[in-house]
Amino acid sequence: MRQFARLLRWEIRCGTVKIWPAAAIFSVLYAAYWVIMLLTGTAAGAEDRIAVLYIGAQFFAFCVPAAAYGHINSPSDGIGYAILPVGNPVKFASMMTVSVIIIPFCFYTWLYAMDSALAFAGEGNGFSGMIWAADNAFCGFWSDFGKICLYQSVFILGNIIFRKHKVTFTILAMLLLHGLCIGVLHIDEIKGIIPVLLYSYVLPVLIWALSYQCLKRVQYR
């Protein structure tokens, strides 16, 4: 447990340094969204902004594994990670905690706080209404964050498998898999709750398990 806590603190510091430029870019884009609404004299409602926040946080979460842990399978930089005096279970648990939960949660919370500040500053102009005042806002926050964690799973795997262009190659692989499932297997036509559960919950867990197996077998040649 002490090894995990020590590694977790170190990876939070290193991951934050590596990912903050992406967080800054997403924050500037969201502020620009507010400015555009302000200058055009239109006001984006809470429900519209929640959707934008979710999409922004989702894309940010996709970038986290490659930004914070892109070095783990590098022939040059990955050696240092490989010789850390901790086992693979501890490494994987720390990586999952940082890249799936801590960093995405902090950014998602920051976006909500930023939205509230902009809505307050505009006094109803640009952004109308507080997103926390929307129906089921609290439950929706946790539900959306849970989806972000689950949908990010394939990027954890892609970061371990691919050595270059990790995010791009993972997105292409996702599109290929999605096209296969929808265009060939016609999964979208299957009715019932079981396909939804398999696709939304079971598949991400299986991908995490596969990611752990791939992490144990990383080669540095």
UniProtKB/TrEMBL annotation:
Which keywords does this chain's UniProt record carry?
Membrane, Transmembrane, Transmembrane helix
Q: Which domain of life, per UniProt?
A: Bacteria
- The answer to keyword Transmembrane helix applying to this record is yes
Protein name per Swiss-Prot or TrEMBL: Uncharacterized protein
Organism the protein comes from: Candidatus Coprenecus stercoravium
Transmembrane stretches, by residue range?
A: 20-39, 51-72, 92-113, 167-187, 193-215
